[in-house]
């Protein structure tokens, strides 16, 4: 590997110090495509680092998150590398659970990382606590063929009202083509990621400056009514159990005319082997309503080293390799350029091969750079995060509210009941956490 | 060895103690150590995500727990789930046992197939049902409904608890079948034959001879299943995550939410204590009733 | 037990020899065959479908259900390239059989004492043992995790064996108790007359006589341990991770996954399913003279 060749002497010195003892590091990661590719390419890392052996723990996102949190909070020391998101990094770093990455080698080119992504993973002094593996925002995918047939032209910045009208026009359930696909599966990282951006752009926010929940506010009412009505009328059946994966499968099989979701889906939708609509794929910025603020999210999956790891140096070797420009190139060569982990490095977007293979690159870059987690709602709010609230309580709050929204979507409760219940549950959680003392 | 009965009993008492010691003391440790820790934590302010906020909380955790509207709904869901699955497996298991008791071609193989679900991991069976059976668009059931010209059912959104009951019932039906079939094999054929001679129809025979004979076996099924059904978790976790709303949140799942989403160890521990109390109430009433049956 | 089966088969033989009803029986038998196989087919269908899906491509897996396709092993190859099946399977075998053996060794003396030397508290102890199983494990996860961390048991097979042993102990003790209790007293009395000590009594008389019962108890414990998915996921990471953890890495990834999930699931349940099929006769035989006689 070029990376290790860059400082062979350091490597030799380290080897001598540890008496050539092979070190095993345990890498905990999500079973997303990009991570599976990382696992399959890791033989390249092991070849260039014969003194390091990798042990993989690949789990489904929810299981992984609970597993890692239990371990890191109790100092279990089971993992040397953890795959965590923009939500966890600042919270865990503040508690001293992560190893600050303050002495990255110059060859890593930390300046090459996209600023908004980098900021999300750094503390106030600009020290990185985790290295971004891939990053995403959200945008609107649509079927060019269906839009052309209906004579609709996609404006530069679509609004939600327009999306509603188009969905009505393009909805064709008899042919299993639905007007719009959106997330409905409950979970703070599932339906609430999307719903939060919708609420933001409708002018709402999670909390006011005194941490009073705002879920029963008119903006939420309006946004949720819009969402429920849209999916009920023009969405696929079973929308309340569709998360990112389910919608990805639906859209790639041609069942959706439009879909608003993560930019990281673009590579998959654009890959003709995985998607039947690859040649008809259109994209536009995420729709807006009252305000453009917070209308699209910002998320990254990052690799971090827990403070409880006993193989920090080896772990650092690995995460700098897996998030390097060389790694991006390796994926490009072996797996094709549409499969490279997006959203992390300026150099990826400057790469002509990537630009050519991924016509969506510019959109994605703009979306990621345009998302501001510190200013995500019309009225001021006290938190950091677009589609989440950067406090430890949010996992629970988001999940509970997500369940309520899902029950409104299935019609089990009315929208009003659901939002009131969500407001009460959230207030209880915040009260218990001592926000109102 | 010709001791009198009385002395035998005292020696026996000591022996009993010695023999029981390993199992009882281990179980005691297994129960008491976590239990003591659970009770202790339930009186503490202890959140894994808030390392700074610790200290004695008194009954605060319980107060929050008991004012949580989710608690009562979760207890209700727990009992509904247990009740329905028990009803389905006991009734279905008895009928199946009668069926598989009859002689027919390839009975041995058919029987093996019918008890197979019991060997399948709960996570796997939940995943099969969720994805390949009950998926609203691509599942086998949706396809069946469509071929019959019916609208596809969106199982986990419109009938969440029913779906869970179906999955869990499918897993435990074979267990009931196995136990009840075993019991049926010891049914006295002469008695049945005699009843038939007296002009009793198959239904009368079933109700007056077979069913009473199965009483003890049914008690066993109820008792063992109850132990597992009260703590059903994997099936809910994989399929509905307790929703929509609170529709499928049982007590075990509620404690999971507190323990592994909120990481509120204090609150989860209070929930654990409530679960233990609930389990013991169930144990006192139901298990005792069943145990009486077992003694006969 | 033996006499009972004999008399049963004798009764069966006489019934079969009853010539005159043969014709009526055979049409009845036809109906029963159809009904029996239909029911068995419906119950087994999800498993059958899963096995079938494992041999499909991902696109075929989500297409309309079809029995006609050209089977492929691609999903199996893909699954194996991501996680070494044998590593997980070996852990499952070691942990489930190890914990079962340990549970039997601990439970036999205890069940013996309860069955033959009952005291006033025996019933209560039994009930209490069983009620310990009704506590949702998630409620004690954090305490157990802390204990495991301090004793260095995280991600070790030893740790899982301990947990499973304790988890299954109540059921094992209770089942053995019901087997022992039904043993004719005079046999043991006779042995005692001959001067057998407790250990000899257990070893030479009790165990041989109740072996089928012990075997079926053990089989049940193996199945329960094999399928346990909470502790195994939370207390292991890589070294000791059994098949339940293996499944969790394929359970809901991005993109199409039904074929891969089916392939992984098939591999995960195949050993225990075959084991169950092979031993079900034994299980039934054991149960016939214990709890459910």
What can you tell me about this protein's structure?
The complex is a heterotrimer of chains A (437), B (296) and C (293). Chain A is an alpha/beta fold. Chain A folds into 2 domains: 2-136 and 299-357, D-Maltodextrin-Binding Protein, domain 2, CATH 3.40.190.10; 138-296 and 374-432, Periplasmic binding protein-like II (D-Maltodextrin-Binding Protein, domain 2). Chain A has helices at residues 2-6, 8-17, 33-48, 61-73, 88-94, 115-121, 144-149, 160-170, 191-201, 218-234, 244-252, 266-269, 312-322, 325-335, 346-350, 352-357, 361-370, 394-409, 415-432; strands at residues 23-30, 52-59, 81-85, 131-136, 138-143, 258-262, 281-285, 299-304. Chain A has a 5-stranded mixed β-sheet, sandwiched between helices. In chain A, strands 6-5-7 form a 3-stranded antiparallel β-sheet. In chain A, helix 18 packs antiparallel against helix 19. With 296 residues, chain B is an all-alpha fold. Chain B has one domain: MetI-like (MetI-like fold, Orthogonal Bundle). Chain B has helices at 5-42, 60-66, 69-101, 107-115, 122-133, 140-147, 155-158, 160-185, 189-197, 202-229, 234-239, 251-261, 265-295, and strands spanning 44-45, 55-56. Chain B has a two-stranded antiparallel ribbon with strand order 1-2. Chain C has helices spanning 2-17, 22-53, 58-62, 74-82, 85-116, 122-131, 141-150, 157-181, 185-193, 198-227, 231-235, 243-248, 258-287. Chain C has 13 helices and no strands. Chain C folds into 2 domains: 19-74, no CATH class; 78-287, Orthogonal Bundle (MetI-like fold). Chain C is globular and about 70 Å long. The chains are: A alpha/beta (437), B mainly alpha (296), C mainly alpha (293). Chains in contact: A-B, A-C, B-C. Chains B and C meet through helix 1, helix 3, helix 4, helix 5 and helix 8 of B and helix 1, helix 2, helix 5, helix 6 and helix 7 of C.
